[in-house]
Amino acid sequence: MNILALIKSEMLLVYGELLRRKQSLLIYALYPYLMTFFIVFIGSSVGSLESFEVRIGVNPLAYLMTASFSLFVILGIVDDVLWSPIYDDNIGTLPYVISSPTPWFLRFLIIPIPRLVIAVVLGFTSVVPLFTYLEGLTGLTISLVVMVLAALAGLLLSTFAVLLVCSISMMVGESWRLLNIVRPAIMIMLGVYYPRFMMPLTVQVLSYTLPSSHVIDLIMRTLVSGWLPELTMAVSLLGVGTALAVMYGPPSYRASKSLEFKKLREGVKT
Amino acid sequence: MTEDAVEVFNLSKRYISRKRKGLLRSESLVVEALKGITFNVRHGEVVGLIGPNGAGKTTTIKIISTLLYPDSGEARVEGFDVVKEASKVRRRIGVMLSVEKGFYGKLTGRENLIYFGSLYGLSGSELLRRVDHMIELVGLKELEAEDKLYEEYSTGMKARLSLARALLKDPPVLLLDEPTLGLDPASARKVRDLVKTLASKEGKAVIYTTHNMFEAELVCDRILLINKGLIVASGTSEELKNKVSDIRTMIVQVRKGVGDLNAFLSRLSEVAVSNASVEYIDDDLVEVRFNVKPSEEVLDRTIKTITVSGLFMNSFKLVEPTLEDVFIYFTRGGPA
Ligand SMILES: Nc1ncnc2c1ncn2[C@@H]1O[C@H](COP(=O)(O)OP(=O)(O)OP(=O)(O)O)[C@@H](O)[C@H]1O
Ligand SMILES: [Mg+2]
Fold it and tell me: Could you tell me which of A200, A263, B26, B328 has the fewest CB atoms within 10 Å of its CB?
């Protein structure tokens, strides 16, 4: 098994699908801007931008752009993992994926990697120019850190946790409708737009179990402090996130095996 | 190698599905797709699985390709169990399941092969070399299709690409489910020739399904006739024809529109040993074809039936059965 070859061909697939669909490429690039302006537009009808800045201590445009960017990176990765069994089933590639000597589990793990590059590219069209415009060199530095952290958040979450969620929801019912429930739930619990301390207790507890929510926490703290995160805090939040991500490993492996078992019991659709 | 490339022993599979009765009501329905089939395939041999729709051919192929668990029985590929040693089996098979699906639309044919090649464990220059070789071999190059997006492919191009993927890592065992479906005659011949060569020259073991009897006769060293989940006859096409050596196929041509054809067909069951097939030859001739155990009495009664139904007989022939007649004999109204 040559992992590098697998990663390379996954890149071919992802960039082929993305670059050859011009409209989706445009939406990708514009998404953080659209989200930001949409929220600013709604927000300014209930309160002013200045009062946001006074209360949170961050420029609202910078805050919202970061939130939108992080969310987009994470959901981009999460979606592709969640969707892949349904997608492969629908276009008929699943039997060839399953009957190949490459374990299905391994292929799941490779899915996020090409998307990380997309995250970086997206960072350079959204947070980086905005932060640099607002705060010069300081802004540039912060935005680069934010970018790396967001990519990390996406990777940590998807690697095992989403695979677990994915396998379980596929076992319950193989339908994109189910994903439409799973997805917003992840979105809220990440605490991107909606800070964790404002959540009801149960949601808050669930939120703590998502590896990426800790990285998001770090991103938001960085923004509020206005400079690079403090080292001990950064290490502890990243440590918790990573440890959680690793803890999802064994159950997610088992869940993906059960999913495969279920598929083989019914017969993989051709 | 002494052992068989593929061994299938007493394989059975039932599907539990639902019979829909309106939008909400349904009851569970058990389909016995395979009822215990046993066969083997040697290296260098093409074995045809031939049978009517729903006979269980695809089910058999899926089980051997590690895509479906059997309920009971065993299947082995080069000695490895398809359930317990699936990953070893997967390294030894090339699979082609449907000609029209199974690739990524936004990638070109070549890129698709690279993608699946790496899933199959190829990499680096070897991967590229194999991909180029396959593009050439299945004739995608001569169609100048290798760098077109898959979504722009014609059916024939898709089929060729699908075959290319099955051959990509040079597996010793090929499992091909209707590989020539939808191909033009020249392309179908190309696929047949290729499969035959791979078996005879490179010693590959091939399981091949088709609905084309002419093709089955040409490609397959051995044919398994499968019906309702059971193998009802097997052998070379000559052997199969000999199994029905006491059978002849009667071909009666009658004038169209004269007499009562339906009455004739329903009376035929008294003499025929299989269902009749009816074909409209041209504007005024109808050909009825059925198998009989020839004897003076049967001939007499057939003629009488024709007369009683008021048909105008144009010609009347008794011929050696073709493979298709054998197929019909064994799968419809045959000895079962
Ligand atoms: N996933 C499934 N769920 C329920 N029943 C199924 C399923 N797949 C196949 N069957 C049933 O099993 C039987 C055998 O199907 P199979 O696909 O093996 O037939 P086949 O010989 O390949 O036919 P064809 O010539 O039409 O391709 C059929 O009755 C079919 O309806
Ligand atoms: Mg079939």
Answer: A200
